[in-house]
Amino acid sequence: MIETGSLLPSDRAAWEVLARGYKAFYRTEVPDDGYEEMWRRLRDGTEVHAFAARADGKLVGIAHYLFHTTGWMADSCYLQDLFVDEAARGRGVARALIEHVAGAARARGAARLYWTTQEDNTTARALYDRLARFNGFVRYDYPLA
């Protein structure tokens, strides 16, 4: 059985293992102090929020999300990070986390919940295609540094 809820202070070490797995999947380097800063921001809960998924009491998945204003509608909810431990995949963990974030978005009165993934992330996209609608947008990142 998968249970979703808030991250607990005792989840710190297990959360970092999952967060590092997420960053490794997307080939994104984060210095060690970056994980500490993100954990602080998640625990603060004012800018970035998180839910955890547990199976048999063990942390097996994380979702990080945030709300932002939009010019043409109510606030939007952006699911920034979603990661499930490889050993727990295929058991409904990602779906449960997405649905939990959707509940938070509804409670906030957000107009939409959205996320991005890499085009070749076929496993995740198979789930996303069942849960959500692909709207055809392609994202570009302009270098600021």
Task: Please report the number of helical segments.
Answer: 4
> Helix coverage percent of residues?
25-40%
Instruction: Briefly note the CATH topology name.
Output: Aminopeptidase
The first-level CATH class name: Alpha Beta
- Which consecutive residue ranges, at least 5 long each, have pLDDT under 50? none
Question: Under the CATH scheme, which architecture would be assigned?
Answer: 3-Layer(aba) Sandwich
Indicate how many domains the architecture comprises.
1
SS-derived structural category: alpha+beta
Widest sheet, order of strands: 1-2-3-4-5
Biggest beta sheet attributes: 5 strands, mixed
Write down the Rg. Answer: 15 Å
- Let me know the average pLDDT: 96
Distance between the termini: 45 Å
Organism: Streptomyces aurantiogriseus
GO molecular function: acyltransferase activity, transferring groups other than amino-acyl groups
Domain N-acetyltransferase: 2-145
Pfam families: Acetyltransf_1
